[in-house]
From TrEMBL:
Membrane-spanning segments: none
Recorded family membership: Belongs to the FMO family.
Source superkingdom: Eukaryota
Organism whose genome encodes this protein: Linum trigynum
Keywords: Auxin biosynthesis, FAD, Flavoprotein, Monooxygenase, NADP, Oxidoreductase
Catalytic activity, EC: 1.14.13.168
Reactions mediated catalytically: indole-3-pyruvate + NADPH + O2 + H(+) = (indol-3-yl)acetate + CO2 + NADP(+) + H2O
Cofactor(s) annotated in UniProt: FAD
Pathway(s) the chain acts in: Plant hormone metabolism; auxin biosynthesis
Protein's UniProt keywords contain Transcription: no
InterPro entries in UniProt: Auxin_biosynth/cation_transpt, FAD/NAD-bd_sf
Protein name: indole-3-pyruvate monooxygenase
GO biological process: auxin biosynthetic process
Length: 415
């Protein structure tokens, strides 16, 4: 599916390379349909939805493969945290033989099969370096590696997790042990017998902590804030699926009370293990802040037994470990930062109204966050995972199709 960089592939259409590029040394390319930036799940979903409406597109990917974050920036143990039926991309189900929670390798295989099924052929190693709208021309300019693409529509599909987030922690630069972000972590085998501090206790932090423990590491998990831990399943039913069902009939606050009650029955009182719950419920917190509750898959049992130790109140890193606010010092051989990712859209999108400069998310909240002005769209910024991605991809394709059918079908593209 890889395209030659000197022959950009515009699906189901043709391109025209002008002789007078606007940027010296680059080729100016007219794209009749949208330019999609990113060939991860969001970009593939956008492309497939456009395909079904027979709209040509060009998809640019800075990496060398589909879903480069999934392939090169995730740990081996990773599984989808939600059942597969909530993670399917539009018009293409998971294979029936896949388990309820597909593995990383199975999800990558699904994405590759998805691209093959819809004949999606991204142009790889083409990073969008600057994207801006020209009001005089009425088109978007997408500057990439050696090319400048001119188009009517731009779909930002780089997602919420474009770049690893590395917080500033006092003394971390002077720590002599090994330090890495979870994007560089693969498995815990190399940490056997080591004292490892995991910084961050979201789903990734919990899963990495369990993987380290299973591989013989002495694991401490730094918990800074309050958080909700829910069982992944309740009586064999996905907690997420059960929540979605209950929300059809009951208000969020009531469903939250039910989830916390059942979680206490199954997991016990998490505060006794050093993890306090927020004052508002897990679903209400997710809706208001985007903070996802942890879906437990076995890590909390290790925390409850003391095999994975909870630590709080880190003041700073020292040469050989960590100093706590109460003056205690503990040595560590390694620190793994499970501190998440950040959107990088505002670093290359030269548009000030659609995305918030502070966090890289659309200013307009879900469910209306997918559409900007002048033909600008985004997919994968809903804080609702792959389900939100699929919803937005279909909305974007439908909106562009209406314009395409009424405004551009009459245009003739020269060969």
């Amino acid at each position: 599916m890889r395209q030659k960089l000197n022959e950009p592939a515009i699906n189901s259409s043709k391109s025209k390379i002008f002789q007078q590029p606007m940027i010296p040394g680059s080729k100016l390319v007219w794209v009749p349909g949208p330019v999609i930036i990113g060939a991860g799940p969001s970009g593939l979903a956008a492309a497939a939805c456009l395909k079904t409406k027979e709209i040509p597109f060009l998809i640019l990917e800075k990496g060398s493969c589909l879903a480069s974050l999934w392939q090169f920036g995730t740990y081996d143990r990773l599984q989808l945290h939600l059942p597969k039926k909530f993670c399917e991309l539009p018009y293409f189900p998971f294979p029936p033989h896949f388990p309820a929670y597909p593995t990383k390798q199975q999800f990558i295989a699904y994405l590759e099969a998805y691209a093959k099924h819809f004949a999606i052929k991204p142009v790889f190693r083409q990073e969008a370096r600057a994207v801006q709208y020209d009001p005089d021309m009425g088109f978007w300019q997408v500057q990439a590696c050696g090319y400048e693409f001119i188009c009517r529509w731009v779909i930002v599909a780089t997602g919420e997790n474009a770049d690893p987030f590395l917080p500033e922690i006092e003394g971390l630069g002077g720590f002599r042990g090994r330090t890495l972000h979870t994007s560089s972590y693969r498995d815990g085998g190399e940490f056997k017998g080591k004292k490892v501090l995991v910084v961050g206790c979201g789903n990734s932090g919990m899963e990495v902590s369990l993987d380290l423990f299973d591989n013989g590491a002495d694991v401490s998990l730094f918990v800074r804030d309050k958080l909700h831990i829910l069982p992944r399943e309740i009586l064999g039913i996905s907690t997420f699926a059960l929540s979605m069902l209950l929300l059809k009939w009951f208000p969020v606050k009531l469903v939250d009370k039910f989830l916390i009650f059942v979680s206490r029955l199954i997991l016990g009182d998490t505060s006794r293990s050093g993890i306090k719950r927020p004052d508002i419920g897990p679903l209400e917190l997710k809706n208001s802040t985007g903070k996802t509750p942890v879906l437990d898959f076995g890590a909390f049992a290790r925390i409850k037994s003391g095999q994975i130790k909870i630590v709080r109140g880190i003041r700073r890193f020292t040469t050989n470990g960590v100093e706590f606010v109460d003056g205690r010092v503990k040595e560590f051989d390694a620190a793994i930062l499970a501190t998440g990712y950040r959107s990088n859209v505002t670093s290359w999108l030269k548009e000030e109204n659609f995305f918030n400069e502070k966090d890289g998310y659309p200013r307009t909240p879900f469910p209306n966050s997918w559409k900007g002005n002048n033909g600008l769209y985004c997919i994968g910024f809903t804080k609702r995972g792959l389900l939100g991605t699929s919803m937005d991809a279909q909305k974007v394709a439908e909106d562009i199709a209406r314009q395409w059918n009424s405004e551009t079908r009459h245009l003739k593209v020269e060969s």
